[in-house]
Design a protein that fits this description.
Strand order of the largest sheet: 3-6-7-8-9-10
Structural class: alpha+beta
Number of strands: 12
Helix content: 10-25%
Largest sheet: 6 strands, mixed
Radius of gyration: 20 Å
Length: about 230
């Protein structure tokens, strides 16, 4: 029996409505039912949630906190300027933020992805991509770390993605992997404020310090009229 929701309590009310809409669980204790998630389940998610389908499972998470967003934005901007739109850019890549990737029944949303233009000469007007990228970057957060390191990397390997970067703002690290004979081979782990050249973007000397801004002071709600958080 589906849980009937007759009232709304902010975000909790919206989330309850979503669970009722997608019907992935049961309100009866010990009588949980599951079915493979569909694209309609993704569409039904609240606007503040990011949804993916991994091995038939719907995975929904809130938008990430500011350290994740800063690392994501700065790294994407540097790669975009150097490899796609800059005046001295070799124009050899398409760099895309949070593209929706459809691989068979899986729907993944990496933080950043890149396609070599020799494989995708023109950027198509499409709602999602079925051509696997040549490179993806996942910016890790506590709620996504295990998913990004394990299940999503397995799917990227299966689809032939050539390189994966894992950026961890909390540890201030960048890890690089290349696909070799279907397995991920570590190319390097870089720390702190190093200046590095990392495949497949060796032409750019990347200043890691730019990805980790100084930590902001955390204040309680109502203190000086401001709230700072992660």
């Amino acid at each position: 029996m589906l849980l009937q929701v007759g009232f709304h309590l902010g975000r909790a009310g919206r989330m309850m409505e979503w669970w009722e809409a997608v019907g992935l669980g049961s309100s009866k204790m010990g009588n949980e039912t599951k079915r493979p998630a569909t694209y309609d389940d993704l569409v039904a998610l609240p606007e503040n949630m990011v949804g993916q389908i991994v091995d038939g499972e719907l995975i929904a998470q809130p938008r990430p906190a500011s350290p994740h967003a800063v690392a994501h934005s700065v790294l994407g901007g540097l790669l975009l300027a150097h490899f796609q739109v800059g005046q001295r850019s070799p124009a050899g890549w398409w760099i895309v933020y949070e593209p929706e990737l459809h691989f068979a029944q899986d729907v993944l949303v990496p933080d950043i992805a890149g396609w070599r233009r020799e494989r995708m000469p023109m950027m198509r007007h499409v709602p999602f991509f079925t051509l696997a990228p040549d490179w993806v970057c996942e910016v890790l957060s506590p709620s996504t770390r295990n998913l990004d390191r394990n299940r999503k990397r397995e799917i990227y390997a299966r689809e032939g993605v050539g390189h994966v970067w894992l950026v961890d703002p909390a540890a201030r690290t960048l890890e690089s992997f290349a696909l070799r004979n279907g397995d991920w081979v570590p190319l390097g782990q870089y720390f702190g404020i190093e200046r590095v050249r990392v495949a497949p973007f060796e032409e750019l000397e990347l200043d890691l310090a730019l990805l980790w801004p100084p930590e902001l002071e955390v204040r309680e709600p109502g203190e000086d009229g401001a709230l700072y958080g992660e």
